[in-house]
Design goal:
mainly beta, two-stranded antiparallel ribbon, 12-stranded antiparallel barrel, about 5% helix
């Protein structure tokens, strides 16, 4: 486990200790494919996911887990664990969200990453974020939009551009998700999403085979 993760866990626990003043929520999901920025983390297989979020004023923290594909010969559990924390600074008509997220695998040859985020929400449902990966040295600007639709439907859209420092390639990513909640049925959400990436080898160079990839995902989730 990386040093940043070790720093993140005490921050998460410190925020948990103020639970009387904080809002704690839990989530669980089952998805047909775990796609992260257009790339499958489960070799196009299903995933069981879950986590917890704590919000105390403008501060927040959380932890999230999912099964992932483990390379042949790797030792450990085929699980990804993310830990994140941040502070959403509020100004007069403006916000600045600063956060840190660590991506960790519970097996010995997983690719781990620490990512910093700086973002703002200029309008209702709209967010503009810049992510910086420390180990893989990439920038990932992303715009997200969410909107409630009639018939208890809601729409989530995310568009980003993965730009790696030492690679000639760039990758455009996009995700469009439509979901419907069912409060009368244990308050679950059902969703379907389309995930696109313009180059499925974004960490390569101009000499590799640049193939786009489009995947469809269905899933069910629940917030507690």
């Amino acid at each position: 486990m990386k040093r940043t993760t070790l720093l993140a866990i005490p921050a998460f626990l410190a925020l948990s200790s103020a639970a009387s003043a904080a809002t704690v929520t839990y989530n669980a999901a089952f998805v047909s494919n775990y796609l992260f920025r257009g790339l499958s983390q489960t070799d196009d297989g299903p995933a069981l996911q879950g986590g917890a979020d704590i919000k105390n004023g403008n501060a927040y923290a959380g932890a999230w887990f999912s099964n992932v594909d483990k390379p042949d010969g790797a030792e450990g559990m085929p699980v990804e664990m993310d830990v994140y924390f941040g502070y959403n600074n509020q100004f007069d008509g403006f916000n600045l969200d600063m956060g840190v997220r660590t991506y960790n695998t519970l097996f010995d040859v997983g690719r781990e990453e620490t990512e910093f985020k700086l973002g703002t929400s200029p309008a209702k449902g709209l967010s503009v974020n810049m992510h910086r990966g420390v180990k893989a040295q990439y920038w990932y600007p992303e715009v997200t939009f969410e909107k409630h639709l009639p018939q208890r439907l809601y729409l989530d859209v995310a568009v980003g551009m993965l730009m790696v420092d030492d690679a000639d390639d760039k990758a455009l990513t996009a995700r469009v998700e439509v979901a419907r909640d069912f409060p009368e049925f244990h308050k679950i959400d059902l969703f379907i999403a389309a995930d696109f990436i313009s180059d499925d080898t974004p960490y390569g160079d101009n000499n590799d085979k640049d193939d786009s990839d489009l995947n469809f995902v269905i899933g069910v989730r629940k917030n507690f």
